[in-house]
Specification:
The protein is α+β, with helices and mostly antiparallel strands. Helix content is about 45%, strand content about 20%. The strands form two sheets. It has a six-stranded antiparallel β-sheet with strand order 3-2-1-6-5-4. A four-stranded antiparallel β-sheet has the order 8-9-7-10, with helices on both faces. Helix 2 runs antiparallel to helix 5 and helix 8 runs antiparallel to helix 9.
Amino acid sequence: MLVPGKPANEAVRIQALQDLKLLDTAPEERFDRLTRLAKRLFNVPIALVTLVDKDRQWFKSCVGLDATETPRDVSFCGHAILKDELLLVRDARDDERFHDNPLVIGDPNIRFYAGYPLTVPNGNKMGTLCLIDTKPRELDDEERALLRDLAGMAEQELMAVQMASMDELTLLSNRRGFKMLAQHALDACARLEKPATLLFFDLNDFKQINDLYGHAEGDSALKNFADVLRIAFRESDVVGRLGGDEFVALLTGSSHVETTAIMARLKEILEERNATLHRGYAIRFSVGQIEYNPQRHDTVDKLLADADAAMYEHKQALKRC
């Protein structure tokens, strides 16, 4: 048996997979519909939508199999995500990669496997749509094209999941995605008695950028600011764009000193970015900073409201200056 290798961009791929927030979630009709269709069209006992995690493959949808996951080391799909096209194993007993695989010599006694990698728009392969049979078989050209079409439908569903919680312009979490992630983070902070800080950003004179330079330049300014936020904050922080020129970042487990250091780093990176843009304007912001209080902020909406008010006070103070 050959253990599947790892893609060159494995760390980025795993982060993209985690960002989908699909691992260990409940079954969804959008994916179950595809596996039922694949099972019926190809007359196979097992059809799966798999997500290849760091050390396991997890089944987002599974028809014909009781398991919910297997170790990545013995997975066929771990091999499939290394390819851009169909991975077809006609008879696993005759394939050096799989002939002594536990899934071949024991339950579910895999003989035939056909899996297409599922690729999201940034190019990362999240998993597969795959067919499994307990007897050897082949796929003709028409069947291969059909399986590719079904995989394309699965990719569209993954994209729909991604876009439902992601801002299309900046690729940060949108309002829905941020609130969902932030609420989970706040619940964890309350349970573990850890501090949290919300920073609410609003770009200064953003309307003027749009009016003077056009909306395409305004979009560029938003993307540049989002990029600065992405660099300045830690991987554990929740960063999002609420809409328009409003951005937020939730820092968990950070002391006042750490928050101050991150803000200083953010300003430094933004100054460097402004110096290299040569656009005729500089990106500037007002910010409201609120410390999480579990008694007052029992929902993320209340924390956002307080941070929004603090940001407005900061903006008015800058105007008076």
